[in-house]
Amino acid sequence: MCSSGSDLWDRFEMMFGQQDYDGLVSLFAADAVYVEPGGRHEGSESIRAWLDDCGHAFSDVRYEVSLVIEHNDVIVAETVYQSTHTGPLRMPDGSVIPATGKTMDTPGVTILRVKDGKIIAARDYLDFLAGMIQLGLLPSPNHELYSMPWVLRDGITSACTT
Q: Does the residue 162 lie in any domain?
């Protein structure tokens, strides 16, 4: 069992990066729930099955962590997930994408809820679109289409001026 939330996050990050799925699943309560862009996984056995299926599609896995916040029973980590797509990737609809050999740097946030030193819930929010573009699975966006003119510039919104 981990002594603090930051210790638990450090172990989570390390085991995910090393693809130590036995160790990673040991951090979860038996009835934990993990929600990620591809689906909802209920129970540690379901989480392990997802990791075995999806996790082995990538190698050279690492997190670049920019922020970890711990508050009561919640840990929030802002990261960039970096990996190389080296194996078949099963999609939520059951289709399989063969390895592309391409790397991806996907920004995201992971939220962990903890009880009695175990993760009881995990949720990943990540830029799935960016990852699919980087893997060559979706076309690169047209710069003008994705220039987001509504983004604040110099403290004013340019949405009405472009």
A: no
